[in-house]
Write a structure and sequence with these properties.
CATH architecture: 3-Layer(aba) Sandwich
Number of strands: 7
Radius of gyration: 16 Å
Strand content: 25-35%
Helix content: 25-40%
Largest sheet: 7 strands, mixed
Strand order of the largest sheet: 1-2-3-4-5-7-6
Number of domains: 1
Structural class: alpha+beta
CATH topology: Aminopeptidase
CATH class: Alpha Beta
């Protein structure tokens, strides 16, 4: 941990690190449970939303000059309409919600307290504005009998609850992407977890 460096980026400054964020996403999200095949052109288009959001935030972890992890966040209102849709459907105001997007770390850097720091830094950033009631993130849902599910997989639900988040069965978004080794996209459910800031 002592050898790692941290860089914070806000709004349009995220442009400087979009390529690194894209590479980390494509590397880590190939793992269970996302199993994301990855596409550089798609990543660039997808991540541009962070640059366009004046309140977006990224914390990049570097080992020397090498990015080894990143976490991002932005107002839910600045996110993709499909991310906002479940909240609108539940009668909630997306303008009161700050969205925690990805938290990705290369395998050798896990278990060192960085995941906790990701949550703390994003929450601190959301609180600086003083006008959000909730923070939220979503996690892909896979069948327990999925053939690619690792035998030693431990769900992160207890960790997320420890950080103060609770799952919301009524808040589910659906996103398509091709699984590893597949050419066709299939739609996946992503369940939201929420935490009150008040």
């Amino acid at each position: 941990m002592s050898d790692l460096r941290f860089e914070r980026y806000y709004g349009k400054d995220l442009e400087q690190r979009l390529d690194a964020i894209a590479r980390l996403r494509m590397t880590v999200f190939r793992e269970w449970p996302y199993l994301y095949e990855g596409d550089e052109a798609y990543e660039r288009r997808f991540l541009d939303i962070y640059v366009q959001s004046s309140r977006s935030f990224a914390l990049v972890v570097l080992d020397g000059d090498r990015p080894v992890g990143v976490t991002t966040a932005m107002p839910l209102n600045d996110e993709d309409p499909e991310i906002r849709k479940p909240f609108l459907g539940a009668g909630m105001d997306p303008g009161q919600v700050f969205y925690f997007a990805e938290s990705v770390l290369l395998p050798g850097y896990r278990g060192q307290g960085l995941y906790r720091r990701f949550f703390e830094e994003r929450e601190a950033h959301a609180r600086t504005f003083g006008d959000y009631d909730l923070v939220t993130f979503c996690a892909v849902q896979r069948p327990t009998d999925h053939p690619l599910r690792p035998a030693d997989h431990q769900p992160l639900d207890p960790v997320w609850r420890h950080f103060g988040f609770e799952p919301r069965a009524d808040l589910v978004a659906y996103f398509p992407w091709p699984d590893v080794g597949e050419a066709e996209e299939t739609e996946k459910p992503l369940k939201f977890w929420v935490k009150s800031l008040v």
